[in-house]
Structures are given as C-alpha cells and as structure tokens.
Amino acid sequence: MEAIRKGCRPEPIDTARLSGGRFLITRPSVLPESGRLENALRFRINGQFMRIAQVAPLYESVPPKLYGGTERIVSWLTEELVRLGHDVTLFASGDSMTTARLVPACPQALRLNPLCTDQLAHHVNMLERVFSRRDEFDLVHFHIDYLHFPLTRQVQLAQVTTLHGRLDLPELAPLYLTFSDMPVVSISDAQQRPLPWANWQATVHHGLPKESLGFYGEPGKYLAFLGRTSPEKGLDQAIQIAKRVGMPLKIAAKVDRADEQYFETVIKPLLNDPLVEFIGEIGYSEKNAFLGTAAALLFPINWPEPFGIVMIEAMACGTPVIAYPLGSVPEIVEDGVTGFLARDVTSAAEAVRRIGKLNRANCRQRFEEHFTVARMTRDYLAIYDRLARGEPQTVLPADGDPSWTKLALPSSTT
User: Is residue 376 part of a domain?
Assistant: First the structure.
C-alpha cells in the first residue's frame, strides 16, 4: 500500500449493492488515468466492504502533529479500516494525512491557527458537506460530540457517535435527554454513568497500532508526566509525588489558552526545583523514548477521565502507570500488574517505591491483549454492521459508584 499521504486515493470503483447496506466489488466502468486497475482485493473482507465516513474534529489535524487524543484515535481507526479493505472517507482539516479519501473542511487545523477566530463556523460548514454526500455512505461515524444531532434527526442516515469527552457537566444532561434517540458509543464504562438514558450502543476502549510504540525492557531513572497542564490532569500532584520520593520528573505537556493563568500561578512556581524538568509539548515521534525510558508514568488525575490514551501508550512501551482511580482508570490499569492505583500523594509515593516489583513485559502483554487498534476496529465494525442493517441496541451503563461525576472542573476535553 502506498505510504500515508495528504489527500486520498482515487474515487472508488463501481459496486453492486447487497442486502444490509454492504457491497461486492464489480467491474469498473472507468479505468484510472494510469490505465491500471487498483488491486480490488485490498477492498475485500469475505468479498464485502462498507462505505464509511469518519467525521473528525477540526481543532487538530488527523493525526495531530502534537497533542490531540481524539484526532489520533480517528486516524488509527481510519487507517485500519482502509487496511482491512473498507472504502473510507475522512472529513477533517486539510493538513491531515491519510490513505482514505480526504474531504478537507478547512485548510489547516484550528487550534494553533492564528487566523482562525470562529472554530464553530468551520464545523458547521463541514456538516453541510457530510450531509450533502450522505447517500455515498453506508454509515457515518461522528467524533464531534453533539453538534450534528439536530441534522441527523431530520434525515435518514445510518450513523453513530463516539463521545470522547467528559459527560458529567450539568449542561449536558438536558441536551442528551432531548436527543436520547441518537446512537452513541462510550470509550469507557465509567463515561456512561452520568447519562444512563443515552442510547448507548457499546463501550469501545481505545486502541493503537502494535508497531507504533516499541517495548523498553529496562526501567529508566525518572518519572514521566504527559498531557495537559489543566487542573484536572494533576500535574501539581505529580510534582509533589516526585519530590516526596526524591526522583526526577520530566514533564511533556501543553499549555492551552484556557489553562495559561493556572499554569502561571500554580504550576510555574513548582517548576523551580532541580528534580523537575518541563519539556513542553512533544510530538508522537518523541513519545516512545520519553515514555519508554521512564520508570513509571504518573497519572494523578482529579476528574472523571473518559479514557486517557497516555496510559495505554505507556503500557505499550512497557512502562507501568501510577494513577488515581477516577473515571476510566480502573478499567485500564490493572493494579499490581500494569501499575498501581493510589488515592493520594502519600500512597502514590509508596507505589513509586514499589515500582521495581512490576514486570514491564506484563505491561506490554496487557496492551497487546486489550488495547490494540485491531481490537478497537473489530469492535467498531460490529457496531457499524448492526446499525447499517437497522438493528440498534441499547447497552445499560455498568454498575458502580457514580459519586465521582459530581466533581466540577473547568475543561471538557480529553
């Protein structure tokens, strides 16, 4: 397959519809300009494939050049669907890189674009493009929260939405109650609990390509923090933990505009310590060495984290995770196997002192068993197939104590 590139492959070859919204490849009516027919077998799964649209947020490119968990998941899912042979159209920013057919909704990602003053306008324009082409798809997979709900209710469209953010904010309950018919997917069981009336189709844990991050068998001599500098991510707690055990802490984190005041007033004074090194925002190519050569990843969050991709990225590198057990964390970190669950700075510091008792190979093994893109894509394909055949289902949220959803914190992003 040609290397990932900007833009897309040619328009799909002709098809004949089968029952259930699936297709068989047939003889094309027009050959590509090169005169050579693209190998049809790359589109086949048991002789069939689906036409799938992926609709991404426009804040980051797909995949993101720096931070951007949702966009990275959309990228991994899109590329795996193409690899399996499905006909995929990606609606995303124009600087995205994909082997799917790219429909650019804006020239470049919006978060760091100084010329962008109205991000919503670009998303509304993207929705118009998606819905004007809806007959081209067997299923549309949205990753833009609830923005499209009023439109999808007005037209016949096989669609599903993965909700990537926190759902315990008070404004969301009446909205999702109004649109309780919209089929949605959670990225953890914990994420479902604030909205038990939502039309949950399944929980699909995130997954990443096995080969994207390599295994490091020997632990390093520092602790790692990777993420945002927002209050809910617990960077101040991570610094306290490192100081408590006298171990270096390396921080790879971005500072969003919304978090600048918090960073300047709370975090910046804590950086004036020889144990603490603030690296700033890093790209994906730098993550492997950053996480892999760490003794452990610190994840002392104080919010209901919907998933936390960095946890499985660390596990893929063989690096155990020390985390506070809020939101999805207990679904991802296996206490005593892939890390330790701690309630506060004191217990987290004690966990750091016991980190040598964990087998880093077990972290990699659990990642390969539960958190690969292949598994994630299989889960989504089962949902796509069911919805394309008009067979939605409602999945009740997992039992558990929902008291963590009462936390009130400023950010709604992952």
Answer: no
Give the integer Cα–Cα distance in Å for 265 and 352.
28
Same-domain status, 51 and 188: yes
Whether residue 248 sits in one domain with residue 196: no
Of 203, 234, 268, the one marking the end of a domain is 203
**Residue 237 corresponds to which tokens in the numbers above?**
């707690």
Sheet order of strands, 87-92 included: 101-104, 87-92, 51-55, 139-142, 159-163, 183-186, 199-203
- Whether the CB-CB separation of 295 and 340 falls below 8 Å is answered with no
Cis peptide before 63 (omega within 30 of 0): yes
Mean pLDDT for the stretch of residues 245-267: 93
Is the Cβ–Cβ distance between 79 and 98 less than 8 Å? yes
Phi and psi at residue 409, in whole multiples of 5°?
Answer: -135, 160
Radius of gyration of the CA atoms of the chain, in A: 22
pLDDT of residue 395: 59
pLDDT, position 126: 96
Residues 182, 64, single domain; the answer is yes
Q: Distance between CA atoms of 202 and 188, rounded to whole angstroms? A: 9
Interatomic CA distance for residues 370 and 171, integer angstroms: 33
pLDDT value for 394? 60
Cα 69–Cα 269–Cα 267 angle in degrees, nearest 5: 20
Q: Which residue has the tokens 């602790």?
A: 223
Q: What's the pTM value of the predicted model, to 2 decimals?
A: 0.82
Q: What is the mean pLDDT of residues 382-390?
A: 93
Domain that holds residue 91: 5-203
> 36-71: per-residue pLDDT in tens?
333 333 333 344 799 999 999 999 999 988 767 899
Does one domain contain both 149 and 237?
A: no
78 and 167 both lie in a single domain: yes
- Binning pLDDT at 50, 70 and 90, where does residue 193 land? very high
Q: In which element (H, E) is residue 346 found?
A: helix 345-353
| Average pLDDT of span 267-287 | 92
Structural domain count of the chain: 2
Answer yes or no: do 145 and 260 share one domain: no
Cα 179 to Cα 145: distance, rounded to the nearest angstrom: 12
Amino acid at 137: F
